[in-house]
Write a structure and sequence with these properties.
Largest sheet: 3 strands, mixed
Number of strands: 6
Radius of gyration: 20 Å
Strand content: 15-25%
Number of helices: 5
Distance between the termini: 57 Å
Structural class: alpha+beta
Oligomer: single chain
Strand order of the largest sheet: 1-2-3
Length: about 170
């Protein structure tokens, strides 16, 4: 695969992102970088970052979803697109990884399971990955639909036994 099609896709996605911002009557600096398995769209909009991010990143997730749909329809791009505004997702992932370690420490000390708030699939993945090699705890998703919680509980100590008590 040559470099040229990737560069064309990157530029096309950048132009779509700018067009979408304009339709929202917003402006910002848009940068697109090609990663191993996704394109990352970084937007710096200054004073309007909060409007683009929305409550708990909901507006940003919607923008990302719609940009992905626009890219598929207009240029046939079917790959992953990650959109970040003002470094929000990077900061959020760091906070989630710290939360995962904090909850794991509580579980290790108390032996009692801990549960996160409702999280998107990407946020749950951060928790699961942060704790996948933890020696004392393991994780599981809880709930229905795409927004779920993550339950962190002690690892099984002996085959067939667990440190967690069964709830009635």
């Amino acid at each position: 695969m040559s470099e040229e099609p990737v560069r064309d896709e990157v530029e096309e996605i950048r132009l779509l992102a700018i067009e979408f911002l304009e339709k929202l009557q917003m402006a910002g600096e848009v940068r697109v970088t090609a990663g191993e398995d996704q394109l990352t769209v970084s937007i710096e909009s200054g004073k309007t970052d909060g409007l683009l991010i929305g409550r708990k990143g909901e507006t940003l997730d919607a923008y990302e979803h719609l940009l992905r749909r626009m890219a598929a329809k207009k240029i046939g791009y079917e790959g992953r697109i990650l959109v970040d505004v003002g470094g929000y997702k990077e900061r959020r992932e760091k906070r989630l990884a710290e939360l995962a370690q904090s909850l794991a420490a509580r579980v290790s000390l108390s032996g009692e399971p801990q549960t996160t708030e409702l999280l998107t699939p990407r946020e749950r993945r951060v928790i699961h990955l942060a704790l996948r090699d933890h020696p004392d705890v393991t994780t599981e998703g809880l709930g229905e639909g795409s927004v779920k919680r993550v339950r962190i509980f002690p690892r099984i100590t002996e085959p067939g036994q667990s440190e967690i008590s069964e709830e009635p």
